[in-house]
Amino acid sequence: MLTPEQAKDRACAAVERAIRAGADAADAAISTDTAIAVSVRLGALEEVERSEGADLSLRVFIGQRSASVGTGELDDAALDDLARRAVRMAREASEDRWSGLAPAERLMKGAPPALDLDDGAEVSPETLKADALAAEAAAREVAGVTNSEGGSASASRVVIALATSHGFAGAYALTSHAVSASVLAGTGEGMQRDYAHHSARHRDHLESSESIGRRAGERAVAKLNPARMASGAMPIIFDPRIAPGLLGAFTGAISGARIARRTSFLQDMLGKQVFARGVRIEDDPHRPRGLRSRPFDGEGLPVSPMTIVEDGMLESWLLDSAAARQLGLEPTGHASRGGGTTTSNLYMANGSQSVEALIADIDTGLWVTEAIGQGINPVTGDYSRGASGFLIEKGEVTRPVSEITIAGNLKDMFLNMTPANDLEFRYGVNTPTLRVDGMTVAGD
User: Fold this and answer.
1) Which part of the chain is the Metalloprotease TldD/E N-terminal domain (predicted)?
2) What is the pTM of this model?
3) CA 8 distance to own-chain centroid
């Protein structure tokens, strides 16, 4: 596996060869990784996987024409061939007046921020096996658990490098550690499945395997004997492991490409009220050990913490260079190497109420812990997904429910959203528990 410096040198070499082959401009990104994963089931080893790989993506520009090619070979001969092939493809491509590298004056300069993303840990298969076994065992010990889909543990290290022909070259490494368990409770047609998972950049930040396993078992048992519920309009509570999907729909709607194409339900909403008053949404690429922290974006621009929504008002689109040119704006440092935009450690800030206060006045409502399907229309904002969770009656979470559909429109949902004060940074995108009033539940 390459070191960050070696990966940066290879990326620079690819760019140099593209310019020699006739490109006016070029950039190259490299990702190399090594990973090991162990899975167990019913107390026995099922699989040990080890992988190593390297991928280089070269993008070249000739005037307003461009092409992108990739390879897993990083030697000089392979880079020579890749550069020639990319230039030939670019010469045949159609023109795109918005394409091009990021503005040279906006490129990151100086040392990258210290994000502490690489713990240098080398984890043995034996250690991972022990983690997986402990997680599964703890889950199976929960009363009511009757079967297991297994436990797993993994560790990986990735090196990312980017170089451009107009003055940027950077690289960094990151590690990832994860443990999960998935079990079933009950018997026959009444069986219920659930899981628990935790991942961290540093191994010493992982939850214990036992706590992960217990949570998986308790979640599965809690879903036993689900009831149906009556249809109607009611408040819905989104569990923190489901609620981040709502932020994903939001950031997709404010991506520069959608705004430029005018295919977003939030078109023309910049500077306007999008969420309820008091809602704040932040993107923080500099969070130490964050699961999505990074020192630069996919075009070599510096990244920095950004408030996207303040007091419910939409403050910014998410823009790469192409969309920024099309809209007459400046890129925001959210470019994804694969094209388009991406966020880093995105989160909705805490509200002022506890979870208990959030549900105290709900006479009949639904706590959603699982959502099924991808029923979101990015053009209209219409939202409809299968769901399961728990009935809320007179301010109390009572019994499990399943086989229901929840529906609304994201514009209305955002404006009627209230966050609790229980935010935890467990995922790449995080929210507190969320209450959304006025949604429709289709049950019996």
Assistant:
1) 27-90
2) 0.94
3) 25
Cβ(49)–Cβ(36) under 8 Å?
Answer: yes
- Domains in the chain: boundaries: 4-222, 226-444
The CATH number for 4-222, chosen from 3.10.129.10, 3.30.565.10, 3.20.20.70, 3.30.2290.10, is 3.30.2290.10
Q: What is the DSSP string of 237-297?
A: EEPTTTTHHHHHHHHHHTBHHHHHHT--TTTT-TTSB-S-TT--EEE-TT-TT-TT--SB-
111: pLDDT strictly greater than 90: no
Residues in CB range of 110: below 8 A, 6 or more apart: none
The predicted structure's pLDDT at residue 181: 98
Cα 56 to Cα 78: distance, rounded to the nearest angstrom: 11
Per-residue pLDDT tens over the stretch 271-302: 999 999 999 999 999 999 999 999 999 999 99
Residues 6+ apart with CB under 8 A from 6: none
Classify strands 346-348 and 429-430 as parallel, antiparallel or unpaired: parallel
Averaged pLDDT score across all residues of the chain: 96
Q: Taking the chain, what is the end-to-end CA distance rounded to the nearest angstrom?
A: 56
